[in-house]
Design brief:
With about 220 residues, this protein is of the alpha/beta class. Strand 9, helix 8 and strand 10 form a beta-alpha-beta unit. The mean pLDDT is about 95. The longest helix is centred in the C-terminal third of the chain and has 18 residues. Helix 3 crosses helix 4 and helix 4 packs parallel to helix 6. The chain is built from nine helices and ten strands.
Amino acid sequence: MKFGVLGTGVVGQTIASKLVHLGQDVMMGSRDAGNPKAVEWANNEGSPRALYGTFANAAAHGEIIFNCTLGAASLEALQQAGADNLKGKILIDTANPIDYSTNEWLLTVCNTDSLGEQIQRAFPEARVVKSLNTVNCNIMVEPNKLSERTDVFVSGNDADAKKAVTKILHDFGWISVIDLGDIITSRSVEMYIVLWRNFRHVVNSYRFNIKLVSH
C-alpha cells in the first residue's frame, strides 16, 4: 500500500520509517520538494520505498495519509496538499493544537471544537480519523516498549476508515485500540495533551501511556 506522510519532524519520520519497515511505499511531504530533513530521512532509509516531495506530491502518492505536521500549521499544510488529493482517502490526524508561546501549554481550540473537527470540516470528502496524538513518538510505533499493555484511541465519522486505521495500529504493535466515536470526540483526546504534559514532568520520561480499566 502507498502512504503519504505530511511533516518531516520526529513524528513524521518515526511513522514513515515504521511503514517502510513494514514493506509499504511511503512519500514524506513538506513545503519544499527538497526539504533537507526529508532528503536525509530517505537517504538514511536506503530503500526505494522511501520517497519525498511536496505536501501535494505526498498526498497524491498516498492511498492513506498521515498528518504529522504541527497542529498550528496543519490546516495550511493540508490546503497545500490539496483537497483533490485528499478526496475519498483516509486522513490520520496525529496533531495537537498546542500553543507553545508560554511555559504552560495552551490549546488553540478546545471545548466546543477541535483540530480534528476543523480538518474534517475543511476537507469534507476526506475520511478523517484522529489517533496517536495521545502518545509520544517514542512509543507510537513501538508500544511494547512499555512494561504493560496500554490503550490508543480512534475518533472519526467513517466506521470503515476507523477499522482500517485500527488495522494499521495493530501492525504498529497496538493491541488495545478504543473507538471513542465520531470526530467530535477529538476534543477529549486533544484536551488530554495538557494532562499528558503534567504526567511528563511527574514521570520524567517521554515513554509512558494510559490504559482504561473497568469493572
